[in-house]
Write a structure and sequence with these properties.
heterodimer; A: Rossmann fold; Alpha-Beta Plaits; 4-stranded antiparallel beta sheet; 10 helices; 14 strands; 35% helix; globular; B: mainly alpha
């Protein structure tokens, strides 16, 4: 079953700006789906339309087969949203915010309190439950928004840059939490500017640019289109000149740091055999850029060139 | 989880009760700003207009001046508080964006409107009760008709809560939520016969007063409490009910169009 179906989705704002140009998109049930795009590409407009905060100009939105125009209550009950900006009352406590959310979705007070306890505990906010939300740190506020969105246990969870501005420790714990949630059956749609996050978590990816979907494929397929990868090697002994090899392109950044571009057809073993034969010892190695980041930039730039041509 | 079930009336009732509870807890949490100030202000009205100036004015429609103005002062507090509760709560929710909690949830527009209005009515009634207690410290209050008194105060609070809702929806900045109370609501309230009978006015201003909707509410409430009024009670109820219907319709149209809430 499809968790989300967008067909012919179009949005033209009152000022005449075309935000979405007849978008078609399908997210399958159980998917961990990345919706990526540069700023102003239309991601938030899509989320806004799905959540009814933005009115669509044309098109259809179905959530688990339910059309938001014909049975909005049922469609909305399937949906949980973690927006980009904090959108809870600064004067209410963590407890009030989460329990009230249950009420808005029709949960009895007892059930809402049970769920609030569960999610606040899992997300490390239980000790802060009586604190006013404005006193929380940025990371805690993000986690509060996740706890709130989960209170009615939605089948489809939309996260709009959920880890923006949080430290790496919190981000990693949130990744684990979201991965577990997805494995338990919740369909997750994630928008993020941290592309390593999307690569790590998501199995399917759509890239939107200028209000159009320019890529919609599995993460594996997309990463498979990468022709070459660039690694940065930290060397144990300094070099004066970069080595030369037909399959690899070396570039010396400084005497102990070397960049190497490897074609998709070449194995890393070949590289290390070659370096070992020349007594070049490598202390550590890392990707120059995230693989998805390279693809993302290529696609968006390609789309821009296509438009200007 | 409600996702697997249809959204039922019970869910809607729970959602509505949550909005009302949230609204009431909002103004009771800040009672020093919401409930106490009207009590103090109205005490000053009773001291100055009733106690100091009133004896010099003499009786009005057969009642001491203090007794005559008490219904109008109570009604004035109900009007301003029910209006300001909804306008500040809804505009604050828009400004802080936590109105999205409600908009994203499966709650029909009508329940959102009625939920906020119920919060405004609750504050109007609570403040009205507090001011009535304050009034009892200054004068004797006899209720001529409980049913008329309670129904007028309830309908008036509803009407001004709806007006506050419209103001909050259409407001874009904080200035916009103070313009209506300052330049429209306050003058209409003071000119609505709170402190005088329109019999005292020249013929032209008597007729002009009849265009002021607050005049009907003050007089209907005064009729409920004292049994005297400048107008027929049936006319007053008709005007109030018509205005509620009109404002409620405007609220629903604005909500349907997403004015001030959806882009």
């Amino acid at each position: 079953m499809n968790a989300l179906e967008l067909s012919g989705l179009t949005k033209i704002y009152a000022n005449g700006r075309h935000a979405l140009a007849s978008i078609d998109l399908v997210v399958k049930e159980g998917e961990f789906f990345a919706l990526l795009g540069p700023n102003g590409a239309g991601k938030s407009t899509i989320i806004g339309i799905i959540t009814s905060l933005v009115t669509k100009t044309a098109g259809k939105v179905r959530i688990f087969g339910t059309d938001i125009d014909t049975d909005f209550a049922r469609a909305k009950s399937y949906l949980g949203v973690v927006p980009q900006e904090f959108n809870f009352s600064q004067f209410e406590s963590v407890w009030e915010i989460t329990v009230n959310q249950g009420g808005f979705y029709g949960l009895s007070k007892t059930l809402a309190e049970l769920r609030a306890e569960k999610y606040l505990t899992v997300l490390g906010l239980w000790e802060k439950r009586f604190d006013r939300s404005r006193t929380l740190s940025g990371g805690m506020k993000r986690r509060l928004m996740i706890a709130r969105a989960l209170l009615h246990q939605p089948r489809l969870l939309i996260l709009d840059e959920p880890t923006a501005g949080v430290d790496i420790e919190v981000r990693r714990s949130m990744w684990d939490f979201l991965r577990d949630l997805n494995q338990e059956g919740t369909t997750v749609i994630l928008t993020t500017h941290y592309l390593e996050e999307a690569e790590l978590l998501c199995r399917h990816i759509a890239i939107i640019d200028g209000g159009q979907i320019i890529e919609d494929t599995s993460m594996k397929t997309l990463l498979g289109t990468l022709h070459a990868e660039t690694f940065v090697l930290d060397l144990m002994t300094p070099l004066t000149r970069p080595p030369v090899h037909p399959a690899f392109t070396f570039r010396l950044l400084d005497p102990t740091t070397m960049e190497v571009q490897i074609n998709k057809e070449s194995a890393l073993n070949q590289l290390f055999d070659y370096l070992s034969a020349r007594d070049i010892r490598v202390m550590s190695m890392r990707n120059k850029a995230n693989r998805l980041e390279e693809l993302f930039v290529n696609r968006v730039q390609g789309n821009l060139e296509e438009k200007s041509a | 989880m409600i996702a697997s079930d249809a959204v039922t009336t019970r869910h809607y009732c729970t959602a509505f009760a949550t909005i009302v509870r949230k609204e009431i807890s909002r103004f009771t949490r800040i009672w020093l700003q919401t409930v106490l100030p009207p009590a103090i202000t109205m005490s000053l009205y009773f001291i100055i207009f009733g106690h100091l100036i009133g004896p010099r004015i003499g009786r009005m429609h057969g009642f001491e001046y203090m007794q005559y103005i008490a219904p109008g002062i109570i009604m004035m507090s109900v009007i301003t508080n029910s209006y300001s509760n909804v306008v500040s709560s809804l505009f604050g929710a828009k400004f802080q964006r936590h109105i999205e909690e409600i908009l994203v949830a499966p709650i029909p527009d009508i329940l959102i409107v009625i939920g906020f209005v119920a919060g405004g009515v609750a504050r109007g009634l609570i403040v009205g009760a507090v001011v009535t207690v304050v009034a009892l410290c200054f004068t004797d209050i006899h209720i001529s008709s409980f049913s008329i008194t309670l129904s007028v105060v309830f309908l008036t609070a509803t009407l001004f809560s709806l007006a506050g809702f419209i103001n909050a929806l259409t407001a874009r900045k904080f200035d916009d939520i103070s313009i209506v109370p300052t330049f429209i609501l306050t003058p209409l309230t003071y000119l609505g016969g709170v402190f005088y009978s329109i019999d005292l006015l020249p013929h032209f201003w008597q007729q002009a007063s009849r265009v002021n909707p607050i005049f009907y509410m003050v007089n209907a409430f005064r009729f409920g409490m004292l049994g005297v009024s400048d107008i027929k009670i049936g006319v007053a109820f008709s005007v109030i009910c018509l205005m509620i219907t009109a404002l409620f319709t405007v609220c629903m149209v604005l909500m349907h169009r997403g004015v001030g809430l959806r882009s």
